[in-house]
Design a protein that fits this description.
Elements (H helix, E strand, L loop, with lengths): L1 H11 L11 E9 L5 E8 L2 E9 L5 E7 L5 E7 L2 E7 L4 E7 L7 E4 L2 H25 L5 H24 L6 H7 L2 E2 L2 E2 L7 H17 L4 H31 L2 H4 L5 E3 L5 E3 L7 E7 L6 H15 L4 E7 L4 H8 L5 E4 L7 H5 L7 E5 L5 E4 L6 H8 L1
Parallel strand pairs: 1-7, 13-14, 14-15
Antiparallel strand pairs: 1-4, 2-3, 2-5, 5-6, 7-8, 9-10, 11-12, 13-16, 16-17
Helix pairs in contact: 1-6, 2-3, 2-4, 3-4, 5-6
Length: 384
């Protein structure tokens, strides 16, 4: 689990790579339209982000950063606010970047490194994929099932293209490593915890890195991820079998069941709420905005519960004791998924980030998800 967390940390940080001897490498260029903005040059390590240098940009947006090269590929990024350009260094090279701010994450050119050029291609493809997925989720004319099917089809096609043209083509390259950790929202596109084919991709890159960079920590981390993924396959297969069994009931129930223990130790089933309008809510109480959101939900519950509204809230908090404390006084159904961010239920409901919610009608049919709802109270009133 430790190494999987390291992998997730690399994704949430939006990867970059580099390789060196004991000499210097340089990343230089111009970011237009960013006068007086601070440009940061950061290392994205397995343990997190480290700021290496920064500069306040002049009228031309000129910058130049130099650092000691390492003996194996390493990841870096250029950042202004939340705009990021991923950079790969695999020698004592000079990489030149020209970008336009705002929007430099997609509006830039890069030269001096094949790896950096390939990483730019991958970053643009990922941005496009995410935009299309959001558009589908937000399309109120599509049903949830149809939208989810379309999104999954896009992701599957994306994975096949990336495996063919970036991962298996040259698995020893820095950009192949980068491709493994792309994500939509906070979720890995290639998930070695849940997908046998994804484990093969991780293993292929790990094997190549063993040959080209035999003592690299990142290569060893890839091996650990692949090995843990293989160990988990029996568990994952069992979970998937359970999901398939429940999926066979969808036509009858209209919604995939969620069966979890509540904060009082009772088994609760989502499908038992047929006859009520249900707000299915995926939540993390440890998040900063949780208290304000709970107040909003309580207002809705107090106003409409007597008319048939129920809230089925699924917590993804890792600390069970903390969760029980936070839910002790809540009047609705509070359950907890101990698998947290790794839960198969998130995949099942295509949850890309939390909080997220769904509205279910009295017939146990999923009606809409959060992205498709402009006014939650109005939607609930309509179903009641």
């Amino acid at each position: 689990m430790k190494h999987i967390c390291k992998a997730a940390a690399v994704v949430l940080a939006a990867l970059s790579i580099a390789s060196c001897n004991n000499n210097k490498f340089t990343v230089e260029g111009q970011i237009a339209g960013a006068k007086d903005s601070v440009l940061y040059f950061e290392n994205v390590g397995l343990e997190g982000i480290n700021v290496l240098d920064s500069v306040k940009l002049n009228d031309n947006g000129d910058f130049s950063f130099s650092q000691d090269a390492t003996t194996a590929p390493e990841f870096y990024r250029l950042r202004i606010a939340d705009q990021i350009i991923n950079v790969s260094i695999d020698s004592t090279e000079t990489v030149q970047v020209k970008g336009q701010y705002p929007g430099m994450a997609s509006n830039y050119t890069i030269s001096g490194s094949e790896n950096c050029e390939k990483i730019r291609e991958l970053a643009l493809k990922q941005i496009d994929l995410q935009a299309k997925a959001i558009a589908l989720q937000s399309n109120t004319e599509l049903g949830i099932a149809k939208a989810n099917d379309s999104i999954q089809s896009m992701i599957n096609a994306y994975k096949e293209e990336v495996k063919r043209n970036y991962i298996y083509k040259e698995p020893y390259k820095a950009y192949a490593y980068f491709a493994l950790f792309q994500a939509i929202g906070n979720y890995l596109i290639f998930n070695p915890r849940a997908n046998k084919e994804d484990i093969k991709a991780f293993a292929a890159v790990a094997t190549s890195w063993d040959t080209y960079y035999p003592h690299a920590e990142r290569g060893q981390n890839l091996h650990n991820i692949a090995i843990e993924g293989m160990k988990n396959q029996r568990i994952v297969a069992a979970q998937n079998a359970d999901i398939q069994i429940e999926a066979s009931k969808v036509q009858e129930a209209g919604v995939l069941d969620i069966a979890l223990l509540d904060n009082k130790g009772n088994m609760r089933h989502l499908t038992d709420l047929k006859g009520q309008v249900v707000l299915l809510d995926f939540h993390v109480f440890a998040l900063k905005d949780s208290p304000a959101r709970i107040i909003q939900l309580r207002e809705l519950y107090n106003k409409y519960h007597a008319q048939g509204l129920e809230i089925f809230q699924v917590s993804l908090d890792s600390d069970e004791h903390f969760w029980k404390q936070q839910t002790a006084a809540l009047p609705w159904i509070s359950v907890r998924d101990e698998d947290g961010a790794g839960s198969q239920r998130l995949t099942l409901y295509n949850i890309q980030a939390v909080p997220d919610f769904f509205v279910i009608d009295r017939g146990n049919n999923l009606v809409k998800r959060a992205a498709q709802i402009a006014d939650l109270e109005a939607e609930i009133k309509k179903l009641l």
